Amino acid sequence: MRTHSIYKILLFLVIAASPVVKEAGAAEVWVEKGDVVRVHFSGGITKKDADDLTRVLAFLRNESAGKDFIKDSPVNKFLVINSPGGEVDAAMRIGTLVRSYRMAVAVPAKAKCMSSCVYIVAGGLVRWLYGDVGIHRPYFATAPSESFDAAMKKVVAESKTYFSRMNVSEQLADAMFSTPPDDVHVLSDRELKNYWLGREDMAYAEDVEIANATRLKLSRQEYMRRQKLATAESNSKCTYDDEMMSCMVNVYGKYGLIEAKTAK
């Protein structure tokens, strides 16, 4: 996959403006810009990474002359993740940032999204999960200022509130905290769907589908029938690579739903 060296240089200058030294194990953040904007996030998740990503997205928003970066379709701007996890607070911050910019999230087939990374995935309005997404109970690196009992209950409550805010099932938090921290449970396709994670955000999907059914002069039932067929075919044919978008356009065009991926 080709990257654009000019963008790497510009974003390096934006990130390097901070005097804070990059933390050990922190992620690398870089941008690939073509017909769509791909913001790549690879490595551990730290507060510094949340700061870096905040600056990168602000830069992209400010330089998108003639187009509203935030209002543009999520399929035109997405975060590509490959991460073993890291700090929970930082992951929630990044997920909230992704949602505020109305972005899609992709985990490529050879990548992974483990531990706290699942909070970032939850933030995506659209989620393409081809690699492994794994969960386990968050753990403390040092003793908390309060009792462990109080601190753990706080993390559980914050996780459930966060997932609810992202229209993801709170049961995902139950599954996370029932998995020991020295183990990782990789979510199956069925589990991703059951936790409302392996699909578009349901509120976003309703908004887009009703608008598109109206635009295409289809009943909602007929629209959903075609959408189901197109989704099944695109899931089997279109994987995350340079040709994914054109593949999806062809499939949705076949079912007369081409506007379904360009409406918002």
From TrEMBL:
The keyword Signal applies. Residues 1-23 form the signal peptide. This is ATP-dependent Clp protease proteolytic subunit. Keywords: Signal. The keyword Transmembrane does not apply. It comes from Pandoraea eparura. Coiled coil: none annotated. It comes from the Bacteria. Pfam families: CLP_protease.
